[in-house]
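The methods section describes the discrete structure representation at length, but only in general terms. An entry of this sort, consisting of the sequence and the corresponding backbone structure tokens, reads as follows:
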Amino acid sequence: MDIKQIQELVKLMNKTTIGEITIEEDGRKITIKQKKDPVQNIVASSTQTFSQPSAAAAPAPAPVAAAAPAAKAESPKSDNYITIKSPMIGTFYRQAGPGKPVFANVDDEVTPGKVVCIIEAMKLFNEIESDIKGKIVKVLVDDASPVEYDQPLFLVDPS
């Protein structure tokens, strides 16, 4: 990896909420981390949270943490639901391509190992598998939307 590629990665990190990236190539490992500044959260309503970072800081993923309680507040009896979360930052897709079947819909049964969606990250398409057994109650993300690390994607009823 040359210096221009590293500079492009740093620019990408400054424009996004990526906190850390590690790349291993030809036996060399490069880790780039963003400096974390304190973030002030401002609550506008019970279902929306806005974050206001300091002038020099890149946007922090604080709104993502608030997404789980907001989603649970919309569903009655969501106390026993389990959330399938995004293991990475990328773009969320519900199907493998245009015209292909959707991986998981509401009321579909999922089992450990069943693919529920794809997340595209750095031009790689990663199949996201369920690690729980149950029935999908709600899809929390729109197709082709950007997602953050640990962002809730699906609510699953394990019963």
User: Anything to note?
Assistant: Residues 49 and 63 are 6 Å apart (CA to CA). Confidence is low (pLDDT under 50) at residues 38-76.
